[in-house]
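User: I'll paste a sequence; please echo it back and then give the predicted structure.

Assistant: Echoing your sequence first, then the prediction.
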Amino acid sequence: MGLGLELEYVARPTRAEKVAQMIELVGLTQVAKRYPRQLSGGMKMRVSIARALVSRPKIVLLDEPFAALDEMSRDRLNEELLRLYVEQQWTVMFVTHSVAEAVFLSTRIVVLAPHPGRVAHVVPVDLPWPRTAAMRLSAEYEQQVVRVSRLLRAVQSADAAEVL
């Protein structure tokens, strides 16, 4: 996990300290000595996030990091990601095919149109912070999900009409 720091010529004791801090930050201190094969899918995702954050980047790019997880694990990691975002204050570009996930995590959603890929809409997400699991049950959250879903369907329909 400290390879990036090693490539930046960070001294070994400092690397070990920073890696330990990141492992603690993502809540994996109790399994820090385990091999990857001994970790659950959610734990592996948290390790990946810690690896990305160990060098304190200003921008984090995440391309469907939770796509292979079950819904419960995905929701839990979404909440964990938001907690880390509040602590670290980095800018995140998060790619997902889940409208509900996009609404929960975002301050702004960029809807892309296919063929060729282009920005079709930029949608501000006006939901209060902090975002919690209870928010997913709120009417305002559901309205945002429906709004973005309709925009996405409209973009896909328009694209299909252009192809025909």
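Residues 97-164 form one domain. The chain has a mean pLDDT of 85.
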